[in-house]
Amino acid sequence: MNLIGLLEEAGLSGRGGAAFPTDMKIRAAIEHHADLIVNACDGEIGTHKDALVVEQHLDELLYGAGLVARSVHWAAHRGSDTEARLLAAGLPVLSVPARYVASEESALVNHLHGGLARPVMRWAPIVFGSRTAKGRRLPPTLVLNAETVWRIGQIERYGPGWFRSHGTPNEPGPRLVTIGGSVERPGVYDTAAGTPLADLLHAAGAVDVGAVGLSGLSGGWLAGSTAWRATWSDAGLAAYGLRTGTGAIHVLDRATCPLDHVARLTGFAAGESAGQCGPCMFGVPAVAEQLGRLVGGTLQPGELQLLQQRLRLLPGRGACRFPDGVAGFVTSALLVFEADVRAHVTGLCVASREWSGAAR
Amino acid sequence: MHHGLARGAEGVHVVNVLWYLSRATGVISMVLMTAVLVLGLFLSGARRSVGARSTTIQAVHRSLSLGMLTFLVVHIVSAIIDTYVHIGVPAAVLPFTSSYSRLDVGLGTVGSDLLAAIVVTSVLRHRISESVWRLVHRASFAMWPVTLWHSIALSTGTDPVLRYTTIGCGVIGVAAVLWRLAGSHHDSARRREVLRQEWT
User: Fold this and answer.
1) What is the pLDDT of residues A321-345, one digit of tens each?
2) Where in chain A is the domain with CATH 1.20.1440.230?
3) B10 touches chain A (CB under 8 A)
């Protein structure tokens, strides 16, 4: 059986967050004679899984990449250990500025072909070939996440049956997750869809769980009580409007004000705009500004409506999905941390009140 | 006198008509071109867009530029046919080949050639790359000063209406360009700010 048939049977989907069927991407890449970029940037906040794959499974990763394309470029954040390891292995490294949108698929393709590492408007899938805003053509280029490429090699070696022995029928295969935040043993863990989130939390040594963030800036939030009974799979998380996405799991303890954490990350997101599309250039900073004032206790109750209105205006209007991700992230936070939002609007932070020495 | 009246009695009528036609369409083209320039500058430099206003201005910008074409064609054709000064067909196409006022006529030719390029690329806009179209469209900024010089230099001194109209166009156009350059647009300011960050 050829590679595409194996991948189709295995049901491998992209591990970079979008979970697009890998066999379809590779079929399109072969039809368009596309080069391959292996994305080992770990661009999502709180993920380190690509770094682990490069550090511990480089041989298998090289094997997987060799199955897909002859011409392979290795993308890693500038100055990262991953970049150093890839360079030490003598591989052609695409040195990517260490910022959020720079490792987005089309930004990598743009950067590889001499442009800035900023996303490009897509009129068709990037693997078909694309065009920058200035009209410069970008040749067909396939971008696969490092974990995805590693899995391709594994499937070819151990077979689709082995792959499907992990996970669920709809979301098969082993998965890497990065667990961080308020846990005793932060790091990358081997798991699969369908695992109780509680198992993952226990494994990483989470005890005091106030809330759990999933998939970083492109995901959203679970309240602590929900997190202990949720199943970590797209099917299990759909009830909460969430996805496994990039596999980032961030634990906030109950002493931490979740809104403060969300406002900080949104403030970071506001500075990550590539300055190309209105919703991203102005919408994300406007949302971040309001969240900052919410945390500071100076947001008027009437302004919450404007905040919600702005969040609804962000999705679906950018060249890439960055504003969509941030909007989902903040919307989910406002929903899950509704009590905190109300407390902040009336000028009182629930977390700081409950956990300050005076209150207890 | 630069005037057609200096010619022999039998030619006076026809020469006069062509002469006046050429001058009149010339100065109208100049006025329209200035209006198109001002509207275009306003569109690209608008501090904020209000409702349907920019759409309306865009439509007027386009219609006026097409309207100007009509006047310009009449201006060029009548200048060629007019026999008072000899401007042949080649001089109307190739810049700086006119035996009469080589520089001043040549600048007018440069202007009309640029305009032809803009019209052709705009008609083919969906068939050529965005960058080529943009580059050629930007050349319209060179078209205006070139045409202005041509207009001032060739609008005769005995006809203050022509000269002052042209000078008025110059003043208004320069003011619009200065307004455009002076304006800090929050969109482009943010784009520049982001571009100064590390993206390579």
Assistant:
1) 999 999 999 999 999 999 999 999 8
2) 258-355
3) no
Where is pLDDT greater, at A351 or B186? B186
* Topology given in CATH for the domain delimited by A3-156: Rossmann fold (3.40.50)
The C-alpha atoms of residue A122 and residue A318 are separated, in whole angstroms, by 10
Per residue in B33-70, pLDDT tens?
A: 999 999 988 888 776 666 678 889 989 998 998 899 89
Cα-to-chain-centroid distance, residue A307 = 24
Contact A125, A143 (CB under 8 A): no
CA-based max dimension of chain B:
75
Which fold is adopted by the domain A258-355?
A: de novo design (two linked rop proteins) (1.20.1440)
The residue among A96, A123, A273, A277 with the most chain B CBs within 10 A of its CB, best to mutate, is: A273
Q: What share of chain A in percent tops pLDDT 90?
A: 88
* ipTM higher than the 0.90 cut: no
The number of beta carbons lying within 10 Å of the beta carbon of residue A30 is: 15
Cα distance from B185 to chain A (closest Cα, Å)? 13
What CATH number was assigned to the domain covering residues A166-252? Answer: 3.10.20.600
Q: In chain B, which among 96-135 make CB contacts under 8 A with chain A?
A: 129-132, 134
Q: Which residues of A touch B126 (CB under 8 A)?
A: none
Nearest CA in chain B to A281: B190
